[in-house]
């Protein structure tokens, strides 16, 4: 009986060791290709993951959802993990470009924040295909001194500073940048007009386009990231931008000690709450490695590194114990309950309406 037990134990231990070795070798031989937004992760996250798993991470970046979507819809991405924004993710799921997550391989899902998961389920029912990486708002970044001078000390707290041409004109001399993101600017214009920011009605969108055209003469440039350094260096004084980008500009200006003070506000009328979601394309070559990476990122201390680095909120409730106080306690990063209620989300435009918006945006940018 004892001899038999020892024999079985030996076989069990050897089998377990062989399985562990096989897993280790598989991990060591693995490579995953990640496609994420630029300036959007603490590089130590990638290095630590490689050291722990033996999986090499090839990390590429993009600067617009349109660039990512073009690759996804082309059919062969070459990536194991991509990070689309929720409204784009939704129609990409419908197009069949993602595979469902194996949630049994993601034990750290238990750390996710229900408040965020409920909102992301608008784009991904049951969060079957994606997990939240980071989220934020689209609001106003500005040079504090320049704003005080041009507004006679009145607070910057409203979309009026952008959508009232008489007010916006006061900033033309010091430079104004706007996101090249029609899916975010049309909702902002609709919201300012008192219309549903998620309207897909052509008549409403035409009204938004007309409003945007009235402010076009004062916009120096449309882009997706240049405003970070432009604000930080004092080259511009006003921008419609993503919350974390403006915080990066604020911090860069402070580090440079160049006399520029940058602030970000969520206008009192409300703003867009957006979500960047990590998903696995159907053509992923290393699905197992992709799941390991997703689960690693969902560790509270790991995703906290990303939030602390880029100053964006994340959808991981447990991570809040690891966040820098200046991030967690900043109401512009983690808004209070009342502000959260005032944030809106949008759903993807049907293809026919998307074409309308794209043409209208081209007209806005060209000033025609």
From TrEMBL:
Compartments reported by the entry: Periplasm
Q: Cross-referenced InterPro entries, in alphabetical order?
A: SBP, Sperm_putr-bd
Q: Which family does it belong to?
A: Belongs to the bacterial solute-binding protein PotD/PotF family.
The residues the entry assigns to the signal sequence are: 1-28
Function comment = Required for the activity of the bacterial periplasmic transport system of putrescine.
What is the originating organism of this protein? Answer: Pseudovibrio axinellae
- Which Pfam families does this UniProt record tie to the protein? SBP_bac_8
Q: Which GO cellular component does the record give, naming just one?
A: periplasmic space
Q: Give GO terms: molecular function aspect only.
A: polyamine binding
Q: What is this protein called?
A: Putrescine-binding periplasmic protein
Q: List, in alphabetical order, the GO biological process terms annotated in this UniProt record.
A: polyamine transport
Keywords from UniProt, A to Z, are: Periplasm, Signal, Transport
